[in-house]
Amino acid sequence: MDKKALLTKLIIDNTLTQYRTPVHEELVIALYEDTEIAQHIDFIIDKINAKTAERIIPQDKVPPILLLLPPARNLASEVTSLPEEPSLKPGQIPTHSSPMPPEKPIIHRPTAKITLSNAKVGTAFNSTLSIELDTLDIAKIESVDFPEVVGISFDPESRCLVGTPTKSGNFTLIVHWSVNAIHYHNEVLLIINPDPRSLWQINEPPADSLYPKAHIDSKLILEKDIRIVGASRRGRSHEHAGTFRDDDFYIHHDNQSQWNILIVADGAGSARYSREGSRIAINTVSHYLKSQLSLENKAFKPHLETIHQWNDSNAINQVGSFFAQLFRNAAQLAINNLKNEAIHINEPVKSFSTTLLATVSLRINDELFAASFWMGDGAIAAYGPTGKVRILGIPDSGEYAGQTRFLDDSALNDAEFNRRIIIGKWKDISHLILMTDGVSDPVFETDNGLQDPNKWAALIDEISPCLASPENADNALAEWLNFFSAGNHDDRTLVVAW
Fold this sequence. Notes:
Elements: H1 3-18, H2 25-33, H3 35-55, E1 112-115, E2 119-120, E3 125-128, E4 130-133, E5 140-145, E6 152-155, E7 160-163, E8 169-179, E9 182-193, H4 196-199, E10 216-223, E11 226-233, H5 236-241, E12 247-253, E13 260-266, H6 274-292, H7 301-309, H8 313-344, E14 356-364, E15 367-375, E16 379-383, E17 389-391, H9 409-412, E18 421-427, E19 431-435, H10 437-444, H11 447-450, H12 453-467, H13 473-480, E20 492-497
């Protein structure tokens, strides 16, 4: 021990003894490491050195010193034991100091930083326990104590927490680790988040609510060479809030004319009675389209011949004009009926806001003719052959998520209204599909995603098991619509002709 350390020890020991201060290891370490005490010790040492320097006699003036050595002694023959020291009375000073016990080295506990990932109930968990020491030594994690059974355990070989969590909450783990053969432990917080699906409640709307609507609806048309299915179900957001489904749909096949009518509508979530708005729009538009596409409508006969031949560009343009006027008239009738209902219950017409996506189609040998009208978000597409898709319209996406256009006078009077109508005739179409944004958002995510044939192929693969048994396709599709997608909890409606 150097002189400064010895002086420090003597002062500290004397002070603690004199004032009978309770001693514990943390206090002693704190005193030794105290910067202010160290500065005072340095000051004392400097004072001693200064005073000593004043008394030193120059070397040339030092008188000779005669060293008188005592006679040699036979140390082996002397008694080496020390006389027993009498006990001290209060105020007495010991005549000699007893030997100082050897000092134990002070071992500072390393600061450990232990990190792990958050877990989620029902999801496989595998997280490495990462430990870093401020000493930069390599620590070894030996075991982990869990406060209760949570479905997770510690794997010593991989140093990972593994398992499938069974309960949510914040759990304090005791992590046992060692470094340089010394053992330590730390408390570490493990956060297990709940399964989001467990947080959703299923609540019923008030029994006296105006315009009630079934939470799930489905319909199936199976005839010779005709297979059309439609399904719609209430979204989790409506389940949780205890409100009705806003979506609606319609499918129809005319056995005489062979025309198919497919329509989906999505009532605006912010509109109080949009569930009725979608129903009114569906019923109005479907009734009008059926009347105009029937064999009794003589004005349609020349256009029907063009659709079959499909070889005269001027005649095809006339077919396009016919369907543009057809859908405009249908939309105008729907808007009028929405206004009438709003007047009837003394509500703003915006309370009935809804989107509308409609398609009429006709199979001609191995070809499919289709004319579509697209107002709002969602999607309409003709798929086939495999890996090829034709989007039959332009989605109305706003500047922010959830914004779109609804069926109203401003949209009807828009100079670009005819761009909402698309006609075409194609070979090898395997699926004609309409959907509301409750399906298109989680499946395609963006408008660019709608153009991706791979995403459409993936959707076809997902719904194919539902269509594999056509006689049960409506129930299977309604059940498929219950898939979970984080952040996507809107009503879902899907119509497929295949």
